[in-house]
């Protein structure tokens, strides 16, 4: 009997150790995949409006509008189809969704580099959005594989991968665009996404038990069984508003930097540096924020991040040089580390595992809607008023978000 108990204990410990090694290896692999995905995506973002400017003869209004559409169309299609992919993820697994996203992204971004007109760019980015979701599904996969006591740390570190890629992408892309032209970064991105596909296929292990379609609970039933569903809905809206705030200046940042530089110097490179500055700030504190969420709770961290972000956006209205803009965006990055990872941690802790795919897909849809609203808002406001006016509108969005979060916390309490 003693021998049997000892054997079973050793077997349990062996399985536990194996599971620990597997989720750690999957985490490292997905971290690299998220890094490459963010790197490849952000590599082309700072100068896409300048690239569009080479595809035709546009006045200022047309260039701002097409830049906003090119940014937003990806998020619009993502918002529409994400719930479908979320349901499929709960049926077939999140790893398959990561493979789908990385494979399609490899093709669409590569072919943007050979586009001859702005409509081709818009159509390809629409397809990219419709099949996107690598980082979101990687997050959902790790939410299911990671012990709850490490959730905040893992979510924070995945954010670090995203931010590190977003940080280096504009610098690398801006440098390549400055010396090799605007098309080369798209080709390199396509190749990098093939690497991501292969890494995910062969290095990630998912312990997934398929749920028969007949036994899958309707999403309405899932929501009705949540004790704090009001808070979950507020998290969706928070994701939407935070993403809108972070993306509002994205389609016009290179145009704004060009205005601040009076058309002199390497606009592509400086735009890349300014676009990357939030990444420096987030990278500096993301891991510490993850530990902080595990200690004091994600809601408090989220509240602090929203307050700081709102306060940082207001002085951006008064900038007169790229250096001033870059410093303020660095401070914004410090606050950004406390927002979307905190939302994801709340969802990870408060949502049943069998619904992770669908709940995270709804959150992704909210993020995608923010990705549509933010760039369009920035394009319209900058065309009607000025580039600086975008920052005041963005600060207003974050203040609205703060009021919503305070209301949700009172109802939960």
From TrEMBL:
Protein name, per record: Multidrug transporter subunit MdtG
GO annotations of cellular component type: plasma membrane
Top-level taxonomic group: Bacteria
Compartments in which it is found: Cell membrane
Sequence ranges assigned to domain Major facilitator superfamily (MFS) profile in this UniProt record: 26-413
Transmembrane annotation, as ranges: 27-52, 64-85, 97-116, 155-178, 184-204, 231-257, 269-289, 301-320, 326-347, 387-408
Topology class, membrane: Multi-pass membrane protein
Gene Ontology molecular functions: transmembrane transporter activity
Family matches, as Gene3D superfamilies: MFS general substrate transporter like domains (1.20.1250.20)
Residue ranges that the Swiss-Prot or TrEMBL entry lists as coiled coil: none
InterPro entries (alphabetical): MFS, MFS_dom, MFS_trans_sf, Tet-R_TetA/multi-R_MdtG-like
Transmembrane helix listed as a keyword: yes
Keywords tagged on the record: Cell membrane, Membrane, Transmembrane, Transmembrane helix, Transport
First-listed, main subcellular location of the protein, grouped into a coarse class: membrane
């Amino acid at each position: 009997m003693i021998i049997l108990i000892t054997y079973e204990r050793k077997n349990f410990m062996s399985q536990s150790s194996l599971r620990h090694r597997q989720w750690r290896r999957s985490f490292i692999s997905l971290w690299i995949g998220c890094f490459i995905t963010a790197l490849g995506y952000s590599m082309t973002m700072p100068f896409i409006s300048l690239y569009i400017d080479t595809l035709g003869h546009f006045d200022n209004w047309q260039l701002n509008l097409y830049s906003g559409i090119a940014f937003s169309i990806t998020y619009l299609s993502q918002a529409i189809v994400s719930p479908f992919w979320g349901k499929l993820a709960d049926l077939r697994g999140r790893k398959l969704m990561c493979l789908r996203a990385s494979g399609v992204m490899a093709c669409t971004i590569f072919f943007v580099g050979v586009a001859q007109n702005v409509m081709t760019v818009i159509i390809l980015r629409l397809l990219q959005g419709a099949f996107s979701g690598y980082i979101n599904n990687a997050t959902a996969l790790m939410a299911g594989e990671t012990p709850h006591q490490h959730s905040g740390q893992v979510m924070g570190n995945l954010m670090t991968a995203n931010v590190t890629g977003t940080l280096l992408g504009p610098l690398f892309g801006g440098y390549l665009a400055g010396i090799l032209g605007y098309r080369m970064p798209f080709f390199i991105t396509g190749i990098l996404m093939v690497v991501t596909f292969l890494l995910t296929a062969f290095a990630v292990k998912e312990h997934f038990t398929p749920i028969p379609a007949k036994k899958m609970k309707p999403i309405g039933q899932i929501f009705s069984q949540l004790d704090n569903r009001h808070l979950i809905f507020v998290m969706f809206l928070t994701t939407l508003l935070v993403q809108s705030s972070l993306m509002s200046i994205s389609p016009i940042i290179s145009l704004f930097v060009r205005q601040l530089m009076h058309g002199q110097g390497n606009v592509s490179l400086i735009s890349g540096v300014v676009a990357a500055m939030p990444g420096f700030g987030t990278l500096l504190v993301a891991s510490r924020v993850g530990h902080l969420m595990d200690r004091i709770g994600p809601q408090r961290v989220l509240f602090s991040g929203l307050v700081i972000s709102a306060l940082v956006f207001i002085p951006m209205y008064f900038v007169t040089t790229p250096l001033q803009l870059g410093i303020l965006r660095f401070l914004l990055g410090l606050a950004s580390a406390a927002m979307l990872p905190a939302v994801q941690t709340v969802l990870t802790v408060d949502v049943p595992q069998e619904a992770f795919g669908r709940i995270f897909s709804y959150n992704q849809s909210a993020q995608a809607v923010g990705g549509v609203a933010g760039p369009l808002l920035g394009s319209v406001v900058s065309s009607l008023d000025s580039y600086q006016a975008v920052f005041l509108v963005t600060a207003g969005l974050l203040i609205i978000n703060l009021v919503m979060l305070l209301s949700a916390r009172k109802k939960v309490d």
